[in-house]
């Protein structure tokens, strides 16, 4: 059961970061999602957008801790670490 919760937390963390990046592009830029990602990648800001999107993971992390879902919260932390490493590579 613990490994399943950990994996669910990881998937939720990745999805939440992608959702945060989407919301940032949608509401704070003048681009639509497909041209926005291409333009942001050409300008070299894709890693920064991913990092901004990851801030939503903090709310998910705190929500999981309040509901005593520690293994899911650990999965969210792993997702943040994976996204941070991928941001460095990008």
Quaternary state reads: single chain
Order of helices and strands: HHHHH
Number of strands: 0
Give the low-pLDDT segments: none
Helix content: over 70%
> Rg from C-alpha positions?
14 Å
Strand content: under 5%
User: What's the number of helices?
Assistant: 5
Biggest beta sheet summary: none
Q: Distance between termini?
A: 34 Å
Could you say which structural class the secondary elements and strand pairing correspond to?
mainly alpha
Mean of pLDDT:
90
How would you sum up the global shape? elongated
Structure report:
This protein has 90 residues and is mainly α. 86% of the residues lie in helices and 0% in strands. The protein has five helices and no strands. The chain has helices at residues 2-28, 33-43, 46-53, 56-66, 70-89. The longest helix is centred in the first third of the chain and has 27 residues, at 2-28. The radius of gyration is 14 Å and the shape is elongated. The N and C termini lie far apart (34 Å). The model has no long low-confidence stretch (mean pLDDT 90).
Q: What is the gist of this entry?
A:
The protein is an all-alpha fold and 90 residues long. It has helices spanning 2-28, 33-43, 46-53, 56-66, 70-89.
């Amino acid at each position: 059961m613990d490994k399943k919760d950990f994996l669910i937390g990881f998937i939720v963390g990745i999805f939440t970061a992608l959702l945060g990046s989407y919301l940032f592009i949608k509401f704070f830029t003048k681009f639509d999602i497909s041209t926005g990602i291409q333009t942001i990648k050409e300008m070299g800001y894709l890693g920064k957008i991913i990092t901004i999107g990851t801030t939503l993971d903090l709310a998910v992390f705190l929500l999981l801790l309040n509901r005593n879902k520690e293994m899911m919260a650990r999965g969210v932390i792993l997702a943040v670490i994976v996204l941070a490493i991928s941001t460095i590579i990008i």
